[in-house]
Amino acid sequence: MSEVYVARRGRLRDRWTAAGGEAALVSRPANVRYLTGWSVPGAVLLLGADGRDTLLSPAAPVTDGRTGPPCTTGDLRCTVLPGDAPDPAVAAAELAAAGTTTALLAVEEHDLTVARHRALAAAAPRLRLTGLGRAVEQQRLVKDEEELAALRVAAEITDHALGELLESILVGRTERHLALELERRLMDHGADGPAFPTCVGTGRNSGLPGHRPGDRRVEEGDFLSVRLGARYRGYRCQIGRTFVIGPAPADWQIELYELVFAAQRAGREALLPGTEYREVDRAARHPLEAAGYGDVLEPGTGHGVGLEIGEDPRLSPAAMGKLDACVPVTVEPGVHLPGRGGVRIDDTLVVRPQADGGPELLTITTKELLAL
Question: What is the pLDDT of residues 329-366, one digit of tens each?
């Protein structure tokens, strides 16, 4: 699989040099992994002006299972720095400055702290630092078949974990306990770990965005909302579902659920190549605003997924850009009513043209309102 990473670095280099750039320093962890297949905290990638690339790491890299043993690929040099070495980014700047052809070094300014940026400038004063922008993130938008295959496995693992939980007794158990069990089940089914901290909310906490599971216990009559995802070979998916605890939902629960479900369906159906990001958001947002819930909606209704759970594109009212095919995104509208609870429905999908059947749904756990 090393040729995949060679090609990715080649596309980035061609794009950057065509714009007048020379060497580039990639420091954002997900971007380093995307371009090398290797992962270790603190590692950076130097794309050399001479066409030679170097991974500088404070420890031996861990492969993603496809690149082979670390530091054996001839097209990419790997330097494991000693324990007393400086910041790998500083070492990379010094290495770039040692070359005879490099006068300009592009850096990921959105990833660097001010102190780290100053350290780079001090370590290589003859180099002019410039911004690489979000060039790697833009390249990561459209996923290849290997990436989509990893996302499908992550989604399958997530569906299995959630399905098993629904078969267990829920009344009397705490949000925290349920979240821990879901994460254990993700691992049992082959996940590298959770894609993000698992969210479980019951009763008044249900549907609350970003809720951290606490000690509230599941009770009869509650809405129970869960949001979870598996990480597999670095790739992350997301699913969110809301259920009712007890023999039958109340009328207000049915009404709210059907409204959010209609909004989520409208957002999913808008996921076609060429659709503006903000149009997808508008499709999902409109039914909720029309029902009078505009003031309690979140700033966006979806985002990209991949090596990060919240990557580009952003589906929000102010987002600029249009969808491409093979871009995986979430559609996740929700309504939370303070003191009562609420509904969230999240799915991970891949943008596909109508000729190919339209959006590909990766997370397939039922969206029917279940009374558990």
Answer: 999 999 999 999 999 999 999 999 999 999 999 999 99
Distance CA 94, CA 323 (A): 39
Give the distance, in angstroms, between the CA of residue 21 and the centroid of all CA atoms in the same chain.
Answer: 29
Q: How far is Cα 362 from Cα 372, in angstroms, rounded to an integer?
A: 24
Q: Round to whole Å and give the CA distance between 357 and 346.
A: 20
Tell me the whole-structure pTM to 2 decimals.
0.93
Class of residue 358 by CB neighbours under 10 A (exposed 0-12, middle 13-18, buried 19+): middle
Nearest-CA neighbor of 4 among 329, 190, 233? 233
Q: What is the DSSP string of 170-202?
A: -TT-BHHHHHHHHHHHHHHTT-SEESS--EEEE
Contact (CB, 8 A) for 234 and 362: no
Which value, in Å, is the radius of gyration of the alpha carbons in the chain?
23
Q: Tell me which residue of 166, 30, 141 sits closest to 44, measured CA to CA.
A: 30
Q: What is the pLDDT of residue 75?
A: 76
